Amino acid sequence: MIIGIMVVAAVVAIFAIVFNSSSHQNKEAVAAASSEHVESTVKKDKTNKSNKKAAKSTTDMNKISSTTKDEQALDIKALLKNQIDAPKIASVKQDNKTIQVVFEDDGTKTLDEFMAAYAKATIAIVKAAAKNGSESVTTARQVKLEDGLEYAVAAKWDKDQLANGAKLADDAAIKDVLLSADHYAIGGSAWDALTQRQKNDYKNHQQGGLGKTTDDAFNKWVQSGIVKN
Questions:
Q1: Is there a smaller number of Cβ atoms within 10 Å at the N or the C end of the chain?
Q2: Which helix (H) or strand (E) holds 33?
Q3: How far is CA 59 from CA 48, 133, 172, in A?
């Protein structure tokens, strides 16, 4: 009987050992799984943050690139460098998407040649400015007089008219170039040299354009181009 009790006790002890071992292993497995889950979550969170940071960085760079492209000033001299008979540039002013260019008179061309060269150079600038995101272009060409200088011809394109002017042919006639502008002005000496038929092209107006109101700033700019000796 004593032997039987000892056997039963041994069996119970064995079951207890096995049960405790199994329970301990299960706890370790659960702890390990939990640790793996936490580690995976942390890694995933870090990856997401890294991806978001990279995406934001890319977006910021794109914005910077776009802004740089939009605000980059046109190189007017380079634009006209290979254009045959392009008039020389007296001055260029670019500010806040506004471009002003004044061409020189070399004194060697007839009025028709003078006007044609101005028209071709102006259309090249208008097209490039519209493509570059500019909002206003003003160009003028000086003529040499016995008593000084004046703008023989000048014109200004703003916004919608700048876009429309950019649709003109590269070799558009001076009449089409000026009549496409918001405002234009033909200097007194140049106006007097036009034939009556040419004056009729502008409805016999020395100053005009598609702008509904007078542009005082443009008129003052044209007047400032008159320099007497």
A1: N
A2: helix 2-71
A3: 16, 21, 41
CA angle 143, 144, 149 (to 5 degrees): 85
Q: Tell me how far apart the terminal alpha carbons of the chain are, to the nearest angstrom.
A: 142
pTM: 0.69
The C-alpha atoms of residue 140 and residue 153 are separated, in whole angstroms, by 6
CB 191 within 8 A of CB 202: no
CA neighbor of 151 nearest in space, from 226, 44, 63: 226
Alpha carbon distance 222, 188 (integer Å): 12
Which residue type sits at 36? E
20: left (phi over 0), alpha (psi -120 to 50) or beta: alpha
Amino acid identity of residue 196, one-letter, is: Q
Q: Give the C-alpha distances (Å, rounded to integers) separating 157 from 100, 133, 179, 222.
A: 11, 13, 10, 14
Token pair of 112, please? 């028709």
